[in-house]
Amino acid sequence: MARARRRLGTKKVGHAGTLDPGATGVLLLGVGPATRLLKLLTPLPKSYTCEVVLGTETSTLDDSGTVTARHDMAGVTLDEVRAAAASLTGDILQVPPMVSAIKVAGRRLHELAREGIEVERAARPVTVHRFEVEREVEPGVVAVAVDCSSGTYVRTLAADVGAALGGGAHLRALRRTAVGPFDASRARPVDEAALLPPVDVVAFLDRVEVDGEVAELVRRGRRLVRSGQEVTFEGAGPWAVVDLPTGDLLAVYRSAADQAVPDVVLPV
């Protein structure tokens, strides 16, 4: 983040979901007024690649931690690993790791973990859309690809695979390959970062074009009826409201009964 602030010449830089220490890949940044759009990007699904190391558990569930247990898993086959991964696909309940930013009693879990404190964590619902075991990288290590809902901990998936196989496992080489429609092919190093127009950032939303009086109401953040006011908001929303003459994003609106109400309004 500090490098991005220096590169872009502003302190107002935010992100739509941090990367774990040691992880690489896609990180969405918002700059200036566009930071208001980040809350729409944070819930987007994520995609990752990583390697799962069978037979060794660690304190952090990845290769940055200390070894806490070893298991003889030399006899585990690739098909058995794939079956274990399949059992963790779909809507599941996941216990977040101690090395996470979730707060318990006002303290972040990773802060407690650094003090050697472990607390009970409630399981949270997450969705794993794809948990594909691609190949064996070396004996006891498999490469996997994961598509999942926001808030899913891939390191926990790795550990749970090991447990499902009757042993243990940890994660290494974690890389985020996509956040929603923003994949690694569109990413650039921080020092080469280029800003996207706000209208392109929310291209995954339904688009509503306005002009004249309605555009002025949108700029002022006024509520609108969903139909009959020279504009129609179709579907469930949210909607990217775009100025017809310029193509600029004016706001993002969401549904509230028979009205469309502003969720984010960008300054003129």
From TrEMBL:
Annotated GO biological process: mRNA pseudouridine synthesis; tRNA pseudouridine synthesis
Keyword Membrane set for record: no
Active site, renumbered: D20 (nucleophile)
Keyword Plastid belongs to the record: no
Domain Pseudouridine synthase II N-terminal positions: 5-154
InterPro entries registered for this protein in UniProt: PsdUridine_synth_cat_dom_sf (IPR020103), PsdUridine_synth_N (IPR002501), tRNA_psdUridine_synth_TruB (IPR014780), TruB_C (IPR032819)
GO molecular function: RNA binding; tRNA pseudouridine(55) synthase activity
Reactions this protein catalyses: uridine(55) in tRNA = pseudouridine(55) in tRNA
Protein name: tRNA pseudouridine synthase B
Species in which this protein is naturally found: uncultured Acidimicrobiales bacterium
Lineage: Bacteria, Bacillati, Actinomycetota, Acidimicrobiia, Acidimicrobiales
